[in-house]
UniProtKB/TrEMBL annotation:
Keywords associated with the record: Signal
Record organism: Sphingobacterium athyrii
Every Fe/B12 periplasmic-binding domain range: 51-309
Signal peptide residue numbers: 1-22
Keyword match GTP-binding: no
Entry-linked InterPro entries: ABC_Transporter_SBP (IPR050902), ABC_transptr_periplasmic_BD (IPR002491)
Signal keyword on record: yes
Protein name listed in UniProt: Iron ABC transporter substrate-binding protein
Amino acid sequence: MKISIYTLLLSLVLLVCLQGCQNQQSKANKNGVKALDSRGKEITLAQPAKRVVVLYPSLVDEVYMLQASDRLVGIPEQVYQMEDTYAFLSKLDPRIVQKSIATPTFGGQANNVESIVSLNPDLVLTFNTDQDNIAQLENLGIPVFTFSSKDETSIFNELIGMGTLLDKKARAEEIVKFVRDEVEKMATPLDQPQKKVYYAWSKGRVLSTSGKGSLIDMAIRLSGAANACPLEMEAPNVGAETIYKWNPDLMILWNSKSSDVYNLKELAALPAVKNKQVFVMSPSFPFDPHTVKFMLFAKQVRHWCFPSYTKEQLDQDMTMAFDKLYGKAGLLQ
């Protein structure tokens, strides 16, 4: 059987194209994917991560925002224990409902390095404060991408870095653009007196707050309010007399109860307490400031501080934001 010149030429062209594609793929595999983490360390993977262990609930949340939950092989047990987090993520993943994703932890708290290793991850995601685990895992040759979530810029950069390593960079950039646009809208000055906000830490730690330069300070300022704490400290402990001196217009609690404030005799005469201006971020999941949802934290504070930003407007903004952040409608219903 004779082979026509046309057929021969076509075969040669296809062969050249195939070799070119193989060379490009080989080059891509050789270069891998790279991203700088919160330490300024370049994390390089031969290919996008397929088996990911996440050691903090906030970072699990961001993996779901990136629509990369199929990569999860290990998560903190707290995801199953935190009622609002479990309820929401159950809408996105039947494995959360069934509690079938492994939890490589000791009693739901400290991480178990041996259990992490047994999951054969090609990437671990954690905060940069997790020094012991980071060192052990990296010594075992497991790549670790760290987060700081210290401010707006770091949250954006770290989300895009994670997205790059999970082959979800375009999705990460889409989320960042949406949040940046929302933040820009909030930058418009409000024609109302600025209020001072005192933020209290979780679990009833009313006398522990967040100072200037902190993540909470950033979110409060974004709302249009001012942080009542003038100290340049991440998490100062203060006395009741100091809070009287600062005289906040309202107090905001995280994972605490309003009774934690109202039952404190030493704060009973504080105007914010007497005027019932103590508010609780509950449920806390929609307002996690360690993620791009710091924008929603700020919107909630804005509603409490400025009556012109109504509950109806807040609810509309929340619904729209969740549709955008998770790429699925109706999640807040």
